[in-house]
Design a protein that fits this description.
about 425 residues; alpha+beta; Outer membrane efflux proteins (OEP); two-stranded parallel sheet
Length: about 425
């Protein structure tokens, strides 16, 4: 019995170890790409929900506008008492005087036959106004891509620096151990060892600061995408972007066009207001008196006909309103031209940044190799007792800086590429 229990305990331990190993592998393999961050940030952005509200408002307004073609029905009832009524001074057979108390209930029906395009133009204005709101939200939402770029590549930079720092600490420890042996052989002194120890402490200090900064960026990215990213998450370094052609496809251009379309729709509304309206009407009533004012008693009646209306008052302000809309369109056109000018300048600046970092990267490997060669020569001098620890650390530190510059240039090149992608909204 005891043997069986022991075997079960061993099996359970193995299962637990396997589960822990699997969990650790999941944590270690957790990755996220910059495109994942774009999608998650977009889905998490509160303003995205405004899209649905705008569409619902547009549908309600269009439905209300289209109901203008339906018959308009009005019911009314009234009871009045008059201090005086019309009287006929001559007594006539069958004709009695009018009552001072009068009652009437009517049902009026009006049907639009031709409105000059008023309802249609109003529906076009509703669509254009809704489009402006939608495009404005798309512009605001698009701006979050720039924030994702800065955070994502900032974390990538700190990841590279932390990894490089770890290699640097191994290098420092190797030199520390070597100088310790030199001291024993009388080729170095305690001051040489202290110089290396200072660099080790500074490297540990820098590593701590880099981790804190990385975690701060990671926390901000977590808030933006609405998902907690732990310290073990791996950000996948994106590939370089090859821009075959550069053109401006920013959502702001769609917003400018939508604003112009909305102003043109308002201008069309002004045109249709100058046209007459034709409609049919019918009125059915029951009252005392009826249509025959000289007949006493309650009676039913009806009236049918056609009505033509033409509001000439719209002509008075039409020219001023049209000129105002024209001025507003010119203002939007000017804003669009200014935006294009600024974006084109930004595109040119981003392209020059990309070229700058490409040129710098041509020499990074050679600089690192030369710095490494100098460091190795210094280590040989240190071994022969002809160089101090401070001088050796100067050359070791120079190699570290050269490697950091190389990493920085690589990350900044990628950031410049993705900034150019943001500026142009190209889908490469």
């Amino acid at each position: 019995m005891l043997v069986i229990i022991v075997k079960k305990i061993i099996v359970m331990k193995r299962v637990v170890i396997l589960i822990l190993m699997f969990s650790c592998s999941l944590v270690a393999s957790a990755q996220i790409t910059i495109n994942d961050c774009y999608e998650k940030a977009l889905a998490n952005y509160p303003l995205i929900r405004q899209h649905g509200l705008i569409e619902k408002s547009r549908d309600y307004n269009l439905s209300n506008a289209s109901k203008g073609f339906l018959p308009q029905i009005t019911f009314s009832a009234k009871a009045t008492y008059q201090s005086e009524v019309t009287e006929i001074p001559v007594q006539m057979s069958g004709i009695t005087g009018m009552n001072k108390d009068q009652y009437a209930a009517t049902l009026d029906i009006n049907q639009v036959v031709w409105d000059g395009g008023t309802i249609r133009s109003r529906m076009e204005t509703v669509r254009a106004s809704s489009d402006v709101e939608t495009k404005a939200i798309e512009v605001d939402i698009y701006a979050i891509n720039d924030r994702v770029n800065q955070l994502f590549f900032g974390i990538l930079l700190f990841d590279a620096l932390i990894e490089l720092n770890a290699i640097f600490q191994v290098e420092l420890q190797r030199n520390f151990d070597r100088v310790q042996s030199y001291i024993q052989n009388g080729l170095a002194n305690q001051a040489d060892l202290d110089a290396i120890k200072v660099e080790q402490l500074k490297a540990i200090q820098a590593q701590s600061q880099q981790r804190h900064q990385r975690n701060a960026y990671l926390d901000m990215l977590s808030v933006m995408i609405g998902e907690t990213l732990n310290e073990n998450i791996t950000l996948v370094k994106p590939d370089e972007i090859r821009f075959l052609e550069v053109s401006n496809q920013r959502p702001e251009l769609d917003l400018f066009n939508a604003r112009i379309n909305h102003l043109e729709a308002l201008n069309n509304e002004l045109n249709v207001r100058l046209k007459p309206n034709l409609g049919l009407f019918a009125t059915g009533g029951y009252g005392n008196p009826g249509l025959n004012m000289l007949k006493s008693g309650f009676s039913a009646y009806y009236i049918v006909g056609a009505r033509l209306t033409w509001n000439f008052g719209n002509f008075y302000s039409n020219d001023n309103n049209k000129q105002l809309i024209k001025n507003n369109i010119s203002s939007v056109v000017t804003q669009r031209e200014t935006f294009l000018f600024n974006v084109n300048m930004d595109i040119s600046r981003k392209q020059r940044e990309i070229d700058k970092f490409r040129d710098k990267m041509k020499y990074d490997d050679e600089i690192v190799a030369l710095r490494t060669s100098v460091k190795q020569a210094s280590e040989a001098k240190m071994e022969n007792g002809t160089m101090s620890g401070n001088d050796l650390m100067r050359d070791v530190h120079a190699v570290e800086l050269a490697k950091q510059d190389k990493i920085l240039n690589e990350i900044e090149l990628l950031l410049a590429m993705y900034n150019l992608k943001f500026v142009t909204n190209l889908n490469n």
